[in-house]
Design a protein that fits this description.
Blueprint (H helix, E strand, L loop, with lengths): L1 H22 L2 E5 L4 E5 L7 E12 L3 H6 L1 H13 L3 H5 L1 H23 L4 E11 L1
Antiparallel strand pairs: 1-3, 2-3, 3-4
Length: 129
Amino acid sequence: MYKYLFLFSVLLTYATNISQVKASNYAYFGFEPDIVTNYVAVKKKMGYVRLTVELMVDGNDLSIVEHHAPLLRDAIINIIGQQAEAKVKSMKGRTEIQLQCEKQVKELLIKETGQPLIKKLLFTQWLDN
């Protein structure tokens, strides 16, 4: 019984160490400066949003993603610029926008490099008026 418990604990420790090694290989690419763009506002005044976007990438692909940053930034700005005010101001809407941006960025990277290269697109800061 103790032999199996010991074996289980050794395997668990080994599996944990492998997952930590894989997770530590990721890097984050942040768009500088923050993205500032307009959205479709209902009122007569202009609506805008300022957001910080981070891309989770494999550390080996960071320079490739950085090279394509202007294209990716433009795609994110275009997506946000087409959104309605209600969607921009709601948490559910922001999540939908984030997923839409992630999908578009992956599609562009596949078109340019043959691979999606990013694991996740994150909005780490969101300010709207």
